[in-house]
Amino acid sequence: MIQTSHILKAKLLIVDDQAANLLLLERLLSSAGYSNISSTPHPTEVMELHRKNRYDLILLDLNMPEMNGFQVMESLKVIESDGIPPVLVITAQPNEKLRALKAGALDFLSKPFDIAEVLARVQNLLQVRLLNLETQKLYKQLLVEQELSEMLLHNVLPQAISERLKGRSKLTADHFQQNIVDSYANVTVLFADIVGFTAFSQGVSPEAMVSVLNDLFTRFDHIAEHRGLEKIKTIGDCYMAAAGLPMEVPDHADRAAHMALDMLVAIQDFNASSQHPLNIRIGMSTGAAVAGVIGKSKFLYDLWGDVVNTASRMESHGTAGRIQLSESTRQALIQSFALEHRGVIEVKGKGEMSTWYLNSLVSD
Which of 114, 279, 326, 356 has the fewest CB atoms within 10 Å, measured from its CB? Predict the structure, then answer.
């Protein structure tokens, strides 16, 4: 319900070519507590006055020489978003009441005025009008909040996963009906780590450190989006992305390779305009994985499987400024890339592995 104090502050306009009627209605409404009352004897002014002031209710006489009330209502419909002007018509002709309602009036007052009827009809119409405006305001606010929530959800989770979450009939902070977990036969995982970042961070303020990370990772985000990879997460100064999920694609290894090459270009561009030149080390591997959203709070799309560990090792056992691939990624490449066999290296937790450096794309 709208509070009485709010109703009494509503903006009212009285339109009548008879000065006596204007004065009577002004005094009547003012004595009832209404504090925002305007009036005019000129119906031709109503449209512009309402456009400027947006009255909550217009008390409109139907029989005026310059412009009758029906014409005024038609002009008001043009500036009302719902085509319904907030009009309470005033008439001494009984046969005009039904016509006025059909023309869009909300209600009518009969002449001569009955004080109790005037106050009751004005209050009832304002109650409905203000409640409707409040409902529209809340609905628009709800739409804005819903749009913001969906934007945040899509930024946190892949679109395909967020759509599945939104489709759940029951989803609360305490309970998933079931986890969202999918298996993939082949994905390519990419890890990139900023070389020497620990030493760098010790020489700058926390704000400068975060600013540098944000700049670099934003560049990487753009590359991931352009090349069709899914950013999984960042861990400190490490950036993780994957190709081939949540939608499976045959060229996942190529996509990851292109992203890795673009990241080397991005770090060069960063260094050209930064006071803090940095370098990155990139590792990639291909294989089976499981990905999804688990747990009951702070939902995160994540990736599990030996391919994740191997890709991480390719990065940590790699070389600054270079891209190291596992044999599985080399075999999964479809396009022609310039590769350099690094040889067999000892990889922590994996033993001996044959690895490759990715140098460039081979032009046709």
Answer: 114
